[in-house]
Amino acid sequence: MEALLQQFFNLAIMERALPLVLMGLRQTIVLCLVVVPLGLAGGLGFALLSRSRSRPLRWAAVVGIDFFRAMPPLVLLIFVYSGLPFAGIRPSPITAVAIAFFLNTSSYYGEIYRAGIESVGAGQWDAARSTGLKGSQALVYVVLPQAIRNVLPDLVSNTVEVVKLTSIASVVALPELLYSADMARSVTFNSSPIVLAAAIYLAMLWPVVRLVSRLERRIAA
Amino acid sequence: MEAWSRFLDAFFKPELIERYFPAIMKGVVVTIEVAAAVVATGIALGLLLAVARSFRVLPASALIVVFADVFRALPPLVLVLLVYFGLPNVGINLPSFAVLWLVLSLVLAAFAEEIFWAGILSVPKGQWEAARSTGLNFVATLTYVVLPQALRLTVPPITNRTVAITKNTALGTVIGVGEILNQATTAQSFAGNATPLMMGAVAYVILFIPVVALGRFLETRFQWRRA
Question: Would B181 disulfide with which of A11, A92, B94, B173, CB 3.0-4.6 Å?
Fold first, then answer.
């Protein structure tokens, strides 16, 4: 028991690691502010593409979405980070993370938007168009607001997944929360810094996870 | 034209494909083994927890909720590093394969519990009451009336979640599990060429495209949450 506390909940070590871990937290937040909006925008693009009038475009969207959903994000990230240099493109860690996350999260967000748009009845489109709105205006002012409301729990829960996923950036040496904590671990030979990082992830995400459970149940009811 | 052949040389070099094919296939076997073990234990444990929660014994339910929340909120890689580097120092030595299996099983169990529980809740109360009034006891009602209806609803979300979590077997490379990504990156650093990495990526896509497509099919077939 004593050994367990020493190994995982050593407050003295946590205190020493705190400044480094907080710097990592800042990187994680910056990373989220880059990848979440990118994914939301790319996802909308994928969704619109998958509803396009041209069959080849629709097919391309579906194939793209399924391809990037089949590829583990870590494989994609390592491919971008250490594969592209062989093609003469040398992305920095943050660029590599942004590219890999854009491809991966857009395809997940894309599927969610698509389900949302499909959940809005055709009558809404017709009614909006008949009042004189253009197709794009009908989409932005009438269909999307309802679509997003319908799939809000999924959007939020996917965003939780994206935030959790930023931890894999540690593999390409981007000094985010997990990377910093793991640095502190390897210096101190003690897992308490990782427990500290876990506690920070928990503090950030637990409320959101609860919220998602609530939203999901309300919609089911 | 020269750029094109250089590209082919860097990503699709035939003699490297031939040389590293066995290693990548070894990785495929390991990935499938871990994935199968995770799916079996994760879903079984998730179902067990959801059933336990339906007895509505307060302390047990609270513990299950805390477990499910914590394992849904923490990034799997954090858990992998915590278990892999932490446990040996308190005298528990698990091989990296077992660490990966344990962590991913617990994560899948947490998500599966929430999905199964939502399914159980979605069965109308009248079903419970009708079953009980025919003389079935609580367990029989759960087994023969509620679960069959609940599980039907949970097929698409469980499939999608399971696919998402089994893809995390790639995290095993960080702790040296010899799965596809691990074999590919090792081969890449030996060969000084991106061909093995390309092979690994292709192997993953070949492995997972069918399950992703299955998830898509089940989603339209069962129409979860959309009436």
Answer: B173
Q: A6 vs A16, A40, A181, A197, B47, CA distance in Å?
A: 15, 42, 17, 17, 35
DSSP character string of B86-151: HGGGGT----HHHHHHHHHHHHHHHHHHHHHHHHHHHS-HHHHHHHHHTT--HHHIIIIIIHHHHH
B121-149 pLDDT, tens digit each: 989 999 999 999 999 999 999 999 999 99
Give, for B53, the enclosing helix (H) or strand (E).
helix B14-53
Q: Distance from A131 to chain B by nearest Cα, in Å?
A: 28
Q: Do A71 and B204 touch (CB under 8 A)?
A: yes
CA atoms lying within 13 Å on the CB side of residue A175: 10
Q: At B62, which CATH number?
A: 1.10.3720.10
Residue B117's pLDDT is 93
- Report ipTM for this prediction: 0.90
| B107: in domain | yes
Asked if B191 is an interface residue toward chain A (Cβ–Cβ < 8 A), one would say: no
Residue B10, domain member (yes or no): no
Every domain of chain A and the residues it spans: 2-220
Inter-chain touch B89–A170, beta carbons under 8 Å: no
Please report the pLDDT score of residue A212 as a whole number: 87
B30-57 tens-digit pLDDT: 999 999 999 999 999 999 999 999 999 9
- Whether B5 is covered by a domain: the verdict is no
Residues of A in contact with B79 (CB under 8 A): 198
How many structural domains does chain B have? 1
Assigned fold of A2-220: MetI-like fold (1.10.3720)
**Range with lowest mean pLDDT among A39-43, A214-218, B77-81, B193-197:** A214-218
